[in-house]
Structures are given as C-alpha cells and as structure tokens.
C-alpha cells in the first residue's frame, strides 16, 4: 500500500472537490412538479444573502400554489412545474439565470425574484424575449422601462410618492388632539427614500411642520444618538422608513430612551416579520406602521385562511417566517394571476396573456386586483396597522385578529387608534 | 588586475508578444464562433460572468501578484468603472465602448491617487487602506442622486446590435476582447523591466531600492494600470444587467473572488489568474444553476483553504515545482 504523502493528499482533495462539482453540474434542476408535458414556470429567487428571509418564504408560498393547482388537475389540463434558481441576493447573477431559464430550461412562463433590486436586472432579458412578467414586491421598476407586459404584485400602485404615506398621515386625524410637528428618519435605500419623499411631500397638507429630517446609511447599528436628536425636537409625529436590521435597532433605541409621540411608526419594514415580532415583543405596542396583510376580519379574502394553514404547517421545517403575514399571500396571489389569465385565454401566448391582464381583474387570496396601464395595482392599498395589546413576544396572537389592527384604508379599517406610542399595553 | 573577463550575462529570451496576441485572438474568435454555433444565449451570459473575473484577476495580479501589494478594494475600482459608464450614459447617452474608455481613465486616476496616498503603507496596512477606499466610494455613490443613489440606476440598452445575433452576444464579445487585452497587458508587464522591478519590490523592497529600482514610480504605474483594468471590467456591467445599484456594484463577492482567483491559479504569473478565474468562476456558475444554493463563496473559501495549505503558489506553482 502506498504511503499517503502531503502532495498526494492535496491531489486527492482537489480531485474530490472537482468530482463533486462536476457531479453537481450534471444533476437535474430541482423538479417541484411531476407529470408529462408540464407547464414550466421559472424564476430566480433570493434563497441566500440579504434578501433570503423573504425569498425563501415567497418560494414556499409558490410551491404551495403549485401543489394546490396540481391537486386540482393542473393548468390547461397540464401539470405545473416550478423551476427556480438562487440568485444569492446579487443583482449581477440575475440576467444569466433568466437566460438559462428561457433558453436552456425552455420554461413556458417566467415570474420575478423578490424585490426591486433583483427584478430590475431581469427586465432586459424578459423584455428581449417578449415574456409576460408578473413580479413580486418591486417598486417603480417599470417607471422608465414602460414595458407593456409587466405586472406588479405590490400594493404601492403607480405613484408611490403621491400615495404611500397618505394612510399614516390620515391617522393623525384620528388623534384626540391636533398635532403640529413631524420628524422623519429614513435609511438610504430605494423603498425607504421613496417613503420619506412621500411623507415630506404631504406633511404641509396635514398641517405638520418638519422639525427633523435625516437619512442614515444601511450599515448603521447604533441609533442612540439619532433617537436622542429626535427626542430633543419633541415631535408630535415620528415617521421612520427603515429595513429589518435597522428597524430593530431603531425601536430598541426608542424603547431604551423612552421616546414617546402621539403617533410613532411609518414605513418600517421588519415589524411584519414573525422573528422581529417575537424579538421586540411589547416594544411594538401602539406602533403604527405600513403593512400589506393582517389577519383582521376585513381582510379575510376567500382562500387566504386555507393558504396560511398550509403555509404555517410547513414553515418551521422550511426554516422560514412562521406566520406568513407579509409577502407570502402575495407570492401565492402572483401565481393566481397567471393561472386565471391562462384559464381565460386557454393557451400559452405571451401577448394574449398581457392583453388579458390589462383588460381584466383577478380574484385572489389578497382580494380583487386590477392592473394599471403601467402594470402596477390600479388602486393602491397601503395598509397602516397598529400593534395593540402587545405585552410579550408570543406569536400566537398574530394568527388571530386584534394584534395588528388596520387603521387605513377606511374600507379595511378594523379598529380604533390608540395613542400615544410608549403607553403600556 | 586579472585579465580574465567575467562572462557576459545571458541575454533574456525575447518575449514572443506577437504569438500571444495572435493565439489569443484566434482562441477568442473560436470561442465566439463555437458559442454562436451552439446558438444559446445562456452561453454568452455565463461566459460574460467568467470573463469579467478573468479581467479582474489579471488586473489584481499586476499589483498583488508581481509587486506583492494585496488590494482588497477590487470592488471599489470595479464600481468606479461601473458608475463612470452610468454617468456617461446619463449625461451624454453614451454606450458601452465610450463607457469602457471613460472607466479606464477614471479608475486609472483613482488607482494613481490611491497609490500616491497609500503606498507608504505596507503589508496588511495597505490592504486595509484599499478596503476603506471601497467603503468610502460606496458611501459616495449611495449619496449621489445623479447615479440613482441607493435606488440604483437603470440603463436602457438596445435590444439588438448590428453584426451580432443579440445584445447579449455583443456584450460577451466586448468582455472577451477586454479579457484578451487585460491578460496581454499582464503578460507584457511580467516580461518587461517593469515586471522585473515589481518582482524585486515583492521580494525585498529595501534591497530593490538600494540597487536602483525606482520603487515609487513602478508602484504608481502598477496601481494605475491595475486600477484602470479593474474599472474596465466594471464598465459593461450596467449594459449587461440593465440596472445597477450600490449593493450589487460593490458586492463583497467581487473583492473575494478577485483575490482568490490569482491565488488559486498562481499569483505572479500571467497565466495563473486566467486559470484561477476560469476554474473558479465556472464552478460558481455551475453551482448556481445546479445545486442552487449559497455554495459560491463556500467553494471559494474551501478552495482557498486547500490551496493555501497544499499548494500555496497556486496550480501553476504546483506543477512548476514538480
């Protein structure tokens, strides 16, 4: 038997690594549906990297949709198969993945990854092939491109600046005393800056004087000085536009410094996520923030409860958001839009699909939807919810009505505003 | 005094530059024809991904491989090129070729300035300074509304390009040409007095200075050249993706891969970065569309560990030692 030398070990290790990689290269893509001649729907999704938390849960929702459809006999009499790749939350990976989906995997339809930064780099490939494209939670992607086969599953509508903060400011009218001063703090990213622009533009209309208006870089970890500066201005209304890691930091600093205001919250992304709700517990009490879904009686659209039951049964094993109260129903609805349009036109035809989506409405688990000429929701539906009676981090209460009370829009309103923020539950 | 004359030093073999350029051009043409015959657009996009790393690795090798100055700020230089192309597109509506030329000038000047300010630092201190440069540049871009700030910038690229099957093929051909040029420049540097001077700096900077190597001048040339080529690698990105944002342009993966590829292929040789980039980028792309998980950086990490432990001079060094 030959002696194992250091060099020999190196060669063996390298050969092993290359063999493993080569073996993986010929492995088939993950087949999520079975059957002869399936309708193949492809997408890239952020399953790792910064957007993975939402990307993974969106993918689970889409898989549940595919299973539901296949259990009912598929689409156009054919089973549905989902083909997806991990874009690693890196926009530069997206164009190659979409060419692979269209040219190599020969998918029949494509859907988008999650979030603007991932959707935008897929657009040139999709536009070049003339594909009908239903996207998930993109903001203003089609503003400049004006692609007539683009459709967005997002509640913000065509004009984010003109609509987004309306609901939050409308809540000031529900306060027992008139308010006069507003403080704005926003993270330096696309969605938050649009949100800040929106509230800035409408503040005067609601009689609010802006006493503090700053942005911060996404890498900020200590918000104590910022919150102290806001506290020094004694604003009646505090509007934060933040993303998950900084939403946590901001709210912890608010709690530690005991910042109180008649209305506090805004466009915070993070409090919608189960893990954040569990971590922050009573800090969320009386927070008024933007949202897209709450299990209130006014939002019990047909099918949503059944979807959430299935989702919640599988989420722990999939290590994703355990509640499914955020983008998950929208990921399911994104696929419903495609299914309903296909059922109406009876064939896979990208042009006909786009025409149908422009011309007709859709009944989905997030309610009825109709698209504008630009492909956004014709009627924006930015929810503003208030966390009420939150005394701990137990997540069971978020499965039932009463924990996230809808204050805006009036059609979905499910409770009354409690003020101020900082009062105990 | 002895009448015996010292033997004249052996004249170095004349480098065969023409054979490289002809060979590289033929190889590039063959690759282009082969991919066109396959007729699959994915080949061009995947090829672009690999070739951009060939350019980056060759550029990094000029300073890191020959002179031994490890640059952790590759993503910063690359993004400088990316955003120069965005500015030229926004301001003048210019396409990818003017964008590349502009990127070479801007990133080259940045390299020169960085070199002038930081080359007094050595070892890990120089590396930290280059890392800081990338952070400073990202902060600048995030706060610069003209190039989209944190929102990112859209570039509406043409759907077709005369003489090419599609814009995808065109952007691949552009990157292929850039890769040939970048590797050619790296090879020319290696075989010239400049390369020998840089190698002397890497081995012992004080000794090199003592025997008359103009160390500061050579290092400034290296930082300028390396910076310009990294910028050039980034310029086609907005036209490739149609959109660019700070998180994507300054992605950590660029910095990590740019260092890992020459080290794995064999730093300090012109061919090493090419081997490392082709091997690693192909593995990463294959992992992305097969295993479909975060295996990219995992692969890079493990290969780095393996090579540092078992073949510290990379693949080329391993074979040469034998």
How would you characterize this protein structure?
The complex is a heterodimer of chains A (425) and B (322). Chain A is an alpha/beta fold and 425 residues long. Chain A has a domain at 39-160 and 309-369: Rossmann fold (3-Layer(aba) Sandwich). Helices cover 38% and strands 18% of the residues of chain A. In chain A, helix 11 (244-256) links the parallel strand 8 (237-242) and strand 9 (263-268). Chain A is globular and about 65 Å long. Chain B is mainly alpha-helical. The mean pLDDT of chain B is 88. Chain B is globular, with a radius of gyration of 20 Å. In chain B, helix 3 (74-92) packs across helix 12. Classes of the chains: A alpha/beta (425), B mainly alpha (322). At the A-B interface, helix 1, strand 2, helix 3, helix 5 and helix 9 of A face helix 2, helix 10, strand 2, helix 13 and helix 14 of B.
CATH homologous superfamily of the domain at 39-160 and 309-369 in chain A, by name? Response regulator
Biggest β-sheet strands, sense, barrel of chain B: 2 strands, antiparallel
The proportion of strand residues of chain B reads under 5%
**What can be said about the biggest beta sheet of chain A?**
7 strands, mixed
Mean pLDDT of chain B: 88
Query: What is the share of helical residues of chain A?
Result: 25-40%
Share in β-strands of chain A: 15-25%
Number of strands of chain A: 14
Succession of helices and strands of chain A: HEHEHEHHEHEHHEHEHEHEHEHHHEEEE
Largest interface: A-B, 52 and 53 residues
Helix/strand structural class of chain B:
mainly alpha
């Amino acid at each position: 038997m030959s002696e194992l030398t250091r060099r020999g070990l190196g060669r063996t290790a390298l050969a092993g690594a290359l063999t493993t990689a080569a073996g993986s290269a010929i492995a088939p893509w993950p087949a999520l549906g079975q059957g002869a001649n399936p309708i193949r729907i492809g997408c890239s999704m952020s399953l790792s990297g910064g957007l993975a938390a939402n990307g993974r849960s969106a993918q689970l929702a889409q898989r549940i949709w595919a299973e539901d459809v296949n259990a009912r006999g598929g689409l156009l009499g054919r089973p549905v198969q989902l083909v997806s790749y991990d874009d690693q939350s890196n926009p530069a990976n997206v164009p190659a993945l979409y060419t692979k989906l269209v040219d190599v995997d020969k998918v029949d339809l494509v859907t988008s990854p999650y979030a603007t930064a991932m959707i935008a780099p897929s657009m040139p490939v999709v536009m070049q092939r003339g594909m009908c494209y239903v996207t998930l939670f993109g903001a203003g992607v089609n503003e400049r491109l004006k692609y007539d086969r683009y459709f967005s599953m997002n509640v913000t509508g065509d004009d984010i600046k003109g609509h987004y903060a309306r609901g939050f400011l409308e809540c000031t009218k529900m306060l027992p005393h008139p308010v006069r001063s507003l403080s704005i703090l926003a993270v330096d990213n696309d969605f938050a800056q649009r949100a800040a622009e929106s509230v800035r533009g409408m503040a005067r209309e609601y009689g609010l004087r802006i006493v503090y208006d700053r942005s911060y870089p996404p890498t900020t970890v200590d918000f104590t000085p910022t919150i102290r500066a806001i506290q020094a201005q004694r604003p009646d209304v505090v509007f934060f536009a933040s993303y998950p890691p900084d939403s946590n930091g901001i709210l912890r600093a608010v709690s530690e410094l005991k910042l109180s205001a008649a209305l506090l919250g805004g466009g915070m992304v993070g409090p919608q996520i189960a893990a954040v709700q569990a971590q922050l517990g009573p800090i969320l009490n009386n927070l008024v923030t933007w949202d897209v879904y709450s299990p209130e009686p006014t939002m019990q659209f047909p099918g949503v409860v059944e979807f959430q039951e299935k989702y919640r049964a599988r989420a722990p094993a999939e290590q994703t958001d355990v509640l499914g109260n955020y983008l998950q129903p929208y990921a399911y609805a994104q696929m419903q839009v495609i299914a309903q349009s296909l059922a109406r036109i009876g064939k896979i035809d990208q042009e006909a699909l786009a025409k149908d989506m422009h011309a007709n409405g859709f009944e989905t688990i997030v309610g009825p939807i109709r698209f504008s000429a630009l492909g956004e929701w014709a009627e924006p539906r930015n929810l503003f919810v208030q966390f009420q009676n939150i005394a701990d981090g137990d997540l069971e209460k978020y499965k039932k009505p009463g924990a996230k009370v809808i204050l805006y829009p009036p059609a979905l309103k499910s409770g009354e505003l409690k003020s101020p923020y900082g009062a105990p539950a | 005094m002895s009448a015996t004359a010292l033997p004249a030093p052996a004249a170095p073999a004349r480098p065969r530059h023409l054979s490289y350029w002809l060979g590289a051009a033929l190889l590039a043409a063959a690759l282009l024809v082969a991919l066109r015959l396959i007729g699959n657009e994915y080949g061009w996009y995947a090829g672009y991904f690999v070739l951009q790393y060939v350019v980056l690795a060759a550029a990094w090798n000029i300073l890191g491989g020959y002179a031994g100055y490890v640059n952790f700020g590759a993503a910063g230089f690359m993004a400088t090129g990316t955003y120069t192309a965005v500015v030229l597109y926004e301001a003048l509506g210019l396409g990818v070729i003017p964008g590349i030329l502009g990127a070479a000038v801007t990133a080259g000047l940045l390299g020169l300035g960085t070199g002038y300010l930081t080359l007094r630092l050595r070892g890990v201190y120089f590396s930290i300074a280059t890392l800081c440069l990338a952070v400073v540049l990202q902060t600048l871009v995030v706060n610069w509304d003209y190039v989209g700030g944190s929102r990112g910038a859209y570039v509406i690229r043409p759907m077709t390009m005369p003489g090419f099957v599609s814009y995808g093929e065109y952007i691949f051909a552009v990157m292929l040409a850039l890769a040939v040029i970048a590797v050619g420049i790296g090879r020319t540097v290696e075989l010239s007095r400049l390369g020998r001077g840089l190698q002397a700096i890497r081995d012992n900077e004080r000794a090199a200075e003592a025997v008359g190597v103009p160390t500061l001048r050579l290092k400034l040339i290296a930082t300028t050249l390396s910076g310009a080529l990294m910028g050039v690698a980034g310029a086609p990105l907005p036209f490739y993706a149609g959109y660019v944002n700070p998180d994507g342009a300054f992605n950590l993966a660029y910095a990590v891969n740019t260092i890992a590829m020459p080290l794995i292929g064999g730093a300090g040789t012109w061919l090493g970065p090419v081997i490392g980039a082709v091997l690693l980028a192909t593995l990463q792309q294959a992992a992305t569309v097969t295993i479909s998980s975060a295996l990219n950086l995992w692969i890079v990490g493990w290969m780095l560990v393996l090579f540092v432990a078992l073949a510290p001079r990379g693949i080329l060094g391993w074979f040469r030692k034998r």
